[in-house]
Fold each of these.
Amino acid sequence: MADVRIAAVLRAGIFSPNHIANDAAILHATADELRRRGCHVNVYSESEFVGTVIEEDVILAMCRGDEALTKLQLLEDMGKTVINSGYGIENCVRMIMVRLLADAGIPMPESYVVDTDVEVRRRLQKSGFGACWVKRADSPVLHLEDISRCRHPEEAQEILHEFFYRGIRKAVVSREVVGEKIRFYGIASSGWFHCFMPMRPVEDETSATGIDEELRERIKALSMKAAKALRIVIFGGDLTLTADGRCLITNFDDWPSFAPIRKDASKAIAKSVLTEVRSRRTKGKRL
């Protein structure tokens, strides 16, 4: 499809703590796959995207900065094809995400969105919290310290104070759930999906050892429902499988790095993008 012009927008390094190379690699791999299919693809840094007049018909976006999201939303409102949607990326900010997933009936660990300058220890104790996670909620994660495991409510209160003095005003406190960790990746528009248990020893890094077909379909349905609630097409995340068989989503990301399965994922993303382009053309919509 040589007449398809695509802008691929990298994620700024500040929004990729410990994953700068992997995040860039999946976007470049996807751009290469699209070029092999005849598309013209320009790759922009997040700052270049903000400061450039975007004439391409399709925008593939990993960016997360406020200025970039505002521009993405404007281009989407103008009728351009934007994947992931700027509105969807904004929905993945944790304080918004927790509310939207709860409203959609997505099972998650018990969680509270709190101000970091208030006393929450008694509330957590009253709710029976023991070990828990405190996560930055007012923006994407910028540092590894923006997510902290706490052994008890007293320690959670200390971490909230640290967040406040670092300028973080909102946090999510989530009860720690014991169980098997499962990582998942998906493309909502095509139904492509992959999941595996990262803590289990496997013969190869893409193995789904321990996940039978029934469980895989449950995880797929749950993650696709979450993606729909957040308005995200390309996604990944983590969930915990409890001893009694419940699946609780503990993390959900807009356009992850797909590091263990980058080759397959880049092909699937490219295919889904071109399917969307053909669909919009058939319906007479602007790309």
Amino acid sequence: MDISTGLGLAFGGVVLVSLIMMGGDLKMFLDVHAFIVIFGGSTAATLIRFPLSSIMHGLPLGMKYVFSMRRWTSRELVDEIARLAEVARKLGPIGLEKENVEDPFLAKGMRYVADGYDPTFIRDSLERDRDNFLVHLDEGQKIYRAIGDCAPAFGMIGTLIGMVQMFANMTDPSKLGPYMAVALLATFYGAAVANLFCLPIADKLHLKLADEEINRSLIIDGVLMIRDAKSPTLVREMLLAYLPEKHRHAEVEDDEAAEPAAA
């Protein structure tokens, strides 16, 4: 689980509730009209912007991956693929069938190699799988960003509605308070939904999208090199190009430290 996402949301919620409780009662900040303006308006605008199929795929997928972490980092993937290349070199492709690979995408590629599929089929199938996944994840981050963009705007709409209602009932002082509450709470709801929830989630999904694109492309290249019976050393060296420069140096330092120990 991605702990930072959960901690950030929990901490932000605690901060808002604490500030509210310091100056009054939590019930003061609950208003049905403001809730309808923000969530009803944002939902309507999102339905207009995106096809229903994209919303049905993007929202749950985005919520799933924003709270989850990849089991393997890029460097760990390089190590795992090099290990699998060593297995294939010693036992042949059929030896990969007995290997327990935790990453589902890498495991799928290893099944293709073990079954002797053509390299062109392997590349096309894995790239199609990668692209479909990235498209749905990108849809998720776009949808959350769209909600984050329109929530403050609907907050302003709610504020204007509340002010119009307030000025239209200036002769009845008992109605001024509720209408003013709608005006102010609509802006508060819109700002909170956008800046504490939707926009941070969209940014997190954007980062995960970039990571998944790199890692899955790395896996595809690694699988194809294993299919072509490349040596484990060559596989490792080729895949290190996907790692940031500092991680490549760390890999080299580890290898150099291991050589004297082996001697």
Amino acid sequence: MPQDPKHDNSEILSPVTDGLVIKLIESVADIAESEWSRLGFQPKQTNPFIDPRFLSALESSGSITADKGWKPLHLTVYEQEQLVAFMPLYLKGHSFGEFVFDWAWANAYQRHGLEYYPKALTASPLSPITGPRLLHRKLELTKLLAIVKAVCEWLEQNHISSWHINFPDSDGRRLFEQTDLLPRRDIQFHWVNQDYAAFDDFLSNLKAKKRKNITRERRQVESRGWTFEWLSGAEATEQDWQLFYEMYKKTFADKGNWSQLTPEFFPMLAKSMGEQVLLLFAKKDGQRLAGAYFIRSATHLYGRYWGALVDEEFLHFETCYYQGIEYAIAHGLEVFEPGAQGEHKLARGFDPVLTYSYHYVLDPAFREAIGKALRYEVKEIDQLLTYYQQHSAYKATSTDS
């Protein structure tokens, strides 16, 4: 069972530095709605997984709580009594729901009689999505570095083993590369829209074998009588969300996984984010038997959860990948991110991209050992990336038809 990461936090991090006052808050709801715009937040434009409505729905629905191993202690930064920066921060009592795997680190700590948990995490919970990790109002680099330093000092003062910043965007990477945090890389598979007008245009860019395999998979699903129904968050009813939750929970249980999201989360987020939340049902003989949950921005489609009441070959690929590609093409979206891992996505038109994380490890000996391991790991990641790029589903030349 997840541990409840107990911690008695003071309201203000010490030291207050560079004219900044840094406070920890226990809920996103503690920040007034009007303050978010000062940080450059724009609904539908800002990455939805740092959207206060998304983070708040996780907390308000009871999906992200201390007793589930996620204690919110979000970082807020004030200058002259005005909010100038926000960073999601959680004390974790486990390593579930992060998609950057540090179980070996935790086990090594335990073998040496040290406590790895609680640890600190800056990320969007349960979401392997690259995005902003420090929203701020155009703060200069010296102040951003002062914020990072203050968090590291807070870890030391409270004897917290480590701090993990998962999936930062390019701005975050530029910041963290200028600190002594340990960098780490991994690979995901994303689909990129090349101004396709239709799914067939996408297929025409693929190698012949890959194109035929996708066509065969889609035809098999269609021949069995499957049809698909898209609903926006504004259109889906409470009954729709209840059905999808049953699918989601069953699929997690069948795989022996822990379904952390509560039934309240899905309709709660749909109500607050409306058209950005998407629910797709797969139907056969008039019955909804499978479904997938997506979130979109102005430019991206993000596939997040899938569930099914039946087990049928290729249904997952159609529901979670091909329908998403069709949606992205129809709505002019630039990128479709279907989730973490999944080498099988390569053959279906998703190309490899690097993702990043950064890690502060308190214990000097472990910091050195982990740093050495990560330097070795990056060579493996580079080799794997090259391999994936060489095995892309896309035609290398116009003659490969």
Amino acid sequence: MRVWYRNLDVTIIAAWLALVVVGLIAIYSTTHGPKAEFLLDSVRQNYDRQLLWVGISAVAATIVLLLPVRFYQNVAFPAYVLCLLLLIAALLFGAEINGAKSWLRFGGIGIQVSELAKVGTVLAVAQLLASRRAQKSPIRYGFLTVVLIMIPASIIIAQNDTGTALVFIALIPIMLFWSGFPFSTVVLIVSPAVAGYLALVYQPAAYVFAIIVAGGLLFQTRERYVAVLALLVTAGTAAITSLVLPRVLSSYQIDRITSFTNPEAEEFRYTVGFHLVQSKAAIGSGGLTGKGFMQGTQTQGDYIPEQSTDFVFSVIGEEFGFIGAMVVLAIFAYLLIRLAAAGVQMKHPFGVMAATGVAGIILVHLFVNVGMATGILPVIGIPLPFLSYGGSALLANTIMIAIVLNLYMRRDDLSIYGY
């Protein structure tokens, strides 16, 4: 028991608890403030339900911490297959909530299986990249990594939950780069997606980006064929995107993507840009120290849609100001640093890649959600980890952190051969 306590990183637990408490405070403000009498009963119960999920997540984390490290290596691929089956079941038989058919009901409890799928996917990719053979055939195992991640991402896209699918896709460059893949290879993987997005927003910017990427890779690798390949792939993706996606996506979907550049424009302000306009107004009105708990005019006036989920950061910004928002971001930064440090100190490939995957998921959620709330990025419906209302997300994120804590705590039990 002495070793167990000595190796447990209590600072990670403290960061998790601090974020959860801040989330509960924000959710309480949106459901029990002056506007509460005008809310539906189901909305007013969000705080109580979230508090219950905090307890469930804490129990689950305790169980995860008690399991041996070999359990996670042995269960990695079976857990991945189980997650795929749950995703398919949700697609075929699940309940549709907010347009996404990604929920399964077990008794009276609804579970968003796409959140739980993150756990199985991270474990499976970590086990794959930790294989001795992965070091001997990096290209092959890099391809298998892409396949492992794209299968659940594709099913989630079919469920009409593009935001969650993008989190999976963002794992590809993160985990490949951290596993030792050349920087040029990772850039080749990422640059087409960026160019495709830029082509929808402003097509000339996509081609300028393609030239910059090609020039940068030529400078970095000194290989002309790499630069030419980057230019063809990136510019080609931009051209295809500008021609094909307007015919595939609805005008509303395209407006959602492009409106963030000027959400206050007449054609966006009261439609797809409404979320951004109200969120930016709330954060801006908070000033340095905020308006006080349950005193935010935008929050309590219910002007911000999805306040307790996708836009919980705007509640923090308005009621606790710039200082409160920076404190939250500082806690996230500390949590991410500690997760990365735990992975490095484990040294075992499975532990390193598992910690990388968990930190990557939290980082992508943080970057996109805060970017949405502040108008830097378009609104794609991604919650803020540990703060946004949502039991499935809280449970999945807590389990992933507990897995990293377990692997770090029992790092001496991992094979001395590193596999």
